[in-house]
């Protein structure tokens, strides 16, 4: 085993860029958990739909051109947002008062349905999305060659974090959703139709799942089953970060992404164990998560 | 008639809490609802606000039937509610608590931040503090201020003096009379009989979920028997 600076740097970038994707997805999951109190198992499916939509737009409609990728990055999350809006108005909005176990079962069922819909629409083959010309290839830093796309992810992640912070702290609907997270009845008493606040919060959370899916598409093979992988990781991350806490989602994602990529350096065959070990340690020390949970 | 509650029966699950409560509030009046802990004051308030809709009976606001309507629709019609436990949004700052409650109406003299801070100057100094970090008195003021931001015609005030220091009780009475002078109609639920009678025009006494007595403030002051029986003063 050799721990050159180059290997460290490149693994760090890989880990961080993975963490950015995880953060975007988990921030959405956590937002929905915090405001609506819905543990949305189908969140991973929306991420998968985001990735497949990006594939559909970038590769099918635009034949893998650069413009196609950028368009997919903008439109795919909106496709997911639309799907989630329909799901929310048709189904979720009747179920908020149910206990968590019922919601868990319901969203699990939704995950199976979404999985089959994806199979019907896009098939079961592995798909890939090519990154745009601007983000192809790699640059050399600290003697390591670092894929440009990963650097792009390192820029997008913080931008999403800032955007979310501005949304929840500086917009009226953001402030209302923070209030609704704690006391939905009182929000209604001051004249706000909570039902629409929930719809908006749900759609925003799911939009982030779609954005994560569209962003991850060029770095992985887009395939059925990517929903399962991400949802397990995402629930662990929001749990160690603190349920409903956006910064918690960021911290959790960084822990998860970075421990995994250093695991690859230290003990490649068992790399997958490292993030889970980190989760166990965190939960031992702070069972309610690292940052303040709204639950 | 601003508010008419007619023979309402309210339940929490299986337990019957209100047994045919009726009361009336005219425009511009301050009416108090007096009673011991657990007499049914809060349930009456919550029934009016649509939080625990009555199973039987009617509630009319400005001669319009509002029984069983959703709280946000009632708020938009012009009813504001200050709960006894205040229920400030703890994660939001004082300013944000007020901001999200702001609701425009056609009225000429609207409540806005500026007017609220004139009424409660203490709130201005703590504008950027989180609601969860306020003292009980500050939370109480904020809860009232937040209700006013909705520009109500009718204010439901549930135990505003509960847990307040005597100095603050006096200050609050002054604010209530200022609100009355500003044309607001108030239904005030209180255990603190003395304070409530100083602010009110008329009063109802509630006990075990039923209205037991109703009269002007003068009558209530004089009627020792009723007060001893239902209020233990």
Describe the overall structure:
The complex is a heterodimer of chains A (295) and B (233). In chain A, 72% of the residues lie in helices and 3% in strands. Chain A has 295 residues and is an all-alpha fold. Chain A has a domain at 21-224. Chain A has a two-stranded antiparallel ribbon. In chain A, helix 1 (5-36) crosses helix 9 (226-241) and helix 5 crosses helix 6 (172-182). The longest helix of chain A is centred in the N-terminal third of the chain and has 32 residues, at 5-36. Chain A is globular. Chain A starts with a helix and ends in a 10-residue tail after the last helix. Chain B is of the alpha/beta class and 233 residues long. Chain B has one domain: Rossmann fold (3-Layer(aba) Sandwich), CATH 3.40.50.300. Chain B has helices at 41-49, 71-77, 94-101, 113-119, 121-125, 136-149, 166-181, 193-199, 217-222, 224-231, and strands spanning 3-12, 15-25, 30-34, 56-61, 64-65, 79-82, 154-158, 185-190, 202-207, 210-216. In chain B, the strands form two sheets. Chain B has a six-stranded mixed sheet with strand order 6-7-8-3-9-10, with helices on both faces. A four-stranded antiparallel sheet of chain B has the order 2-1-4-5, covered by helices on one side. In chain B, helix 3 (94-101) packs parallel to helix 6 (136-149) and helix 7 packs parallel to helix 8. Chain B is globular, with a radius of gyration of 17 Å. The mean pLDDT of chain B is 91. Classes of the chains: A mainly alpha (295), B alpha/beta (233). Chain A binds chain B through residues 172, 175-176, 178-179, 181-183, 185-194, 294, and chain B through 49, 51, 70-72, 75-76, 80-81, 83, 87, 89-92, 96-97, 99-101, 103, 146-147, 149-150.
